[in-house]
Specification:
Blueprint lengths: L1 E5 L5 E5 L6 E5 L3 E4 L3 E6 L4 H9 L6 E6 L5 E5 L4 E7 L6 E3 L4 E5 L2 E7 L3 H6 L5 E7 L2 E7 L2 E6 L4 E4 L4 E5 L3 E6 L3 H6 L5 E6 L2 E6 L3 H11 L4
Antiparallel strand pairs: 1-2, 2-7, 3-6, 3-10, 4-7, 5-6, 8-13, 9-12, 9-16, 10-13, 11-12, 14-19, 15-18, 16-19, 17-18
């Protein structure tokens, strides 16, 4: 399998299958275009239990698997909002924990499952829900970035505090917890809400410059109501 990134504002990843039998999977409706010579199979990947877990973590109940029937076939998966597509070799690294909705597509050898935060407070108040996504196995996975991508390589014990909506993913060696904003004036007048995400190294952290939920909230405020 080979791939290339296409576009800059609304990017896509185009996959070139080198041999029959190679495959990619995505959430239902994630495919943008494909050539002849590719079969599609919609299924509850991993069974009903894992499918329901994925649904709570922001993905669809059914996943679509696209398999090459001949060498040289092409398929593309496009982002849903303006930003970037981030590629990650799961087998060559430690795997990732990512926020719900970040997953775009992956090879079949990559496993997407539910990841529960070790601290209940992190999931309850983190702004992205209690359930995160665990990416493991081997092969390539592609994630959606809202806005521009920012990568931080944290040293052991190094800390970065981030608005939760700006966190895309982090390696499993990174500690994840929620910190309360200090001071009543900061809470009510600071505009950042009650909590920040605290990430502690070592490990890689992938951030995004746009918080899409915040952006959507501003748009909703401008929509006329009766």
């Amino acid at each position: 399998m080979q791939y290339r990134m296409i576009g800059s504002t609304m990017p896509a990843v185009e996959i070139y299958f080198d041999a029959p039998g190679e495959s990619m999977y995505t959430q239902s409706g994630g495919m943008a275009w494909m050539s002849e010579g590719i079969s599609m199979d919609s299924n509850m990947k991993g069974g009903l239990g894992k499918s329901i877990g994925r649904m709570f973590s922001g993905e669809s109940l059914f996943m679509a698997t696209y398999r090459a029937e001949r060498a040289g076939s092409i398929i593309a998966f496009a982002s849903t909002v303006a930003g970037e597509v981030f590629s990650y070799d799961v087998g060559a690294n430690s795997g990732l924990i990512c926020q719900k909705g970040a997953f775009l597509c992956a090879q079949e050898t990559v496993t997407l499952s539910v990841a529960f935060s070790k601290k209940f407070s992190a999931g309850l108040f983190g702004g992205e829900g209690f359930i995160l996504q665990d990416i493991s196995g081997t092969g390539m996975v592609f994630l959606e970035i809202d806005g521009n991508k920012v990568e931080k390589n944290l040293a052991p014990g190094e800390v970065i505090k981030v608005d939760t909506g700006n966190v895309v993913a982090f390696e499993k060696s990174v500690k994840y917890e929620i910190e309360t904003v200090k001071g009543l004036k900061n809470i009510f007048l600071g505009g950042e809400g009650l909590f920040l995400t605290k990430l502690t190294g070592p490990g890689k952290v992938i951030l995004q410059t746009q918080n899409f939920n915040e952006f959507a909230g501003r748009i909703i405020k401008l929509v006329p109501s009766k």
